[in-house]
Amino acid sequence: MKRIFSLLLLCLTACHAPQTLESGSWDPHVRESLNALMASALPESYAVFDFDKTSIVHDVSQALWVYQIEHLAFADAPAHAFLDGIPDPSREMAPGVTFAQMGAFLEAEYEILVQRLGAGMSLEQMRESEPYLDFRARMFSLLASMDGVFGAPVSYLWMPGLLSGFTQQEAREVIHSAILEHLGKDKLAVQEWRSPDGRWGGAVERGIYFSPEMKDLFACLKDNGITPYVCSASLELIVEGLACDPDLGPGLPPEQVFGLRFVPSEPVTAVYDSSYVQPIGPGKVSCIKTHMAPLHGGRGPVLVGGDSNGDVPMLTAFPDMRCGLIIDVGRSLTSPIGELAALARSGNARYLLQPAFAKADGAVEGGGI
Q: 38, 119, 120, 304: most buried by Cβ count inside 10 Å?
């Protein structure tokens, strides 16, 4: 009987042995440090990750934006000349061209493209036409100009607004279709979108990728009793489409995913919920303190993951954070996130620097806040 009991105890001990990360493409020091953290974390600990370019390669909001353009998948955005959320459309986005004027061009071109599809032109033929090539290049320039004129938060608030007019179910279906079309390491690419006259456009990152290493990290955290959360400046509805899918992503419960939120409505509107601090920059710290810490004894996260300047506030706000995991996507060395990366390179035990798990040839810096 004692021998049987000993065998059972040995089996139970083995079944509950701490889970460790597979080697994969982890930097050996980063992997060792994360395994040590997971083996020694206090009960009810938690970890918080940015989503775009941290949890995944590339940006899920941009993948949806590309999909909507390539499929003309808009509901009522054209009726507003694609300008919802732009603070002052009378401002110039380029010499001699205001945002309002660009919006009028886009609305007119969109109508031409829709009419051609309705008359029997195939989607493939439409994508080779000059109005379409001009339309997508102008959409790129509109988005890029927002960053330069108003700052990155405006563009991150603008992109989800292109879902306005869809029912909630329709929005989820468009998001799911975009994820399916763009998900996969082989889908990562950089494509030049240029108007026929050469004036508008630029390099567009395509594809998204949830690496096995990051899926493994989310699973190991959970297996070691550490609750993983996502805190993103993408629309919560968009992030949930991948983060909460058990087949495509890590299968997180929706209550562990936080992102931008619209006022609940049917159909979707581009009105943001003023009763909720949107998790952009310092708003991520507020999100953690308000929605996560109270569920974990008021403590801060033991692990925070990020890649951009918008993640620096949550990477520096919590004295009880044991590790700040920085995904190196090539940010400027003199930027705030670059300075944290330099600390990690210098051997500072508080920060870890992990090379990106994949990168498209010709990938451009930027995106992800």
A: 304
Task: Answer whether 314's CB lies under 8 Å from 326's CB.
Answer: no
What's the pLDDT at 205?
96
Contact in structure between 71 and 126 (CB atoms under 8 Å): no
Token match 């002052």: residue? 88
The amino acid sitting at 142 is L
SS3 state at 65: helix
CA 163 to chain centre: 16
- Joined together, the tokens standing for residue 155 give 């563009």
d(CA 312, CA 309): 5
Q: Determine the distance from the C-alpha atom of residue 159 to the mean position of all C-alpha atoms in its chain, rounded to a whole number.
A: 12
Q: Which residue bears the tokens 């940015």? A: 50
- Distance between CA 263 and CA 240 in Å, rounded? 17
Tokens 């500072």: give the residue. 348
Ramachandran bin of 258, using left for φ above 0, alpha for ψ from -120 to 50, beta for the remaining angles: beta
CA-CA-CA-CA dihedral for 142, 52, 176, 287, to nearest 10: -100
pTM: 0.92
| Segments in the chain below pLDDT 50 | 1-2, 4-16
Side chain identity at 352, as an amino acid letter?
Answer: L
pLDDT tens digit sequence for 142-155: 999 999 999 988 99
Cα separation, 349 vs 352, in Å, equals 7
Residue from 227, 209, 213 nearest 26 by CA:
213
How many Å apart are CA 287 and CA 258, to the nearest integer? Answer: 8
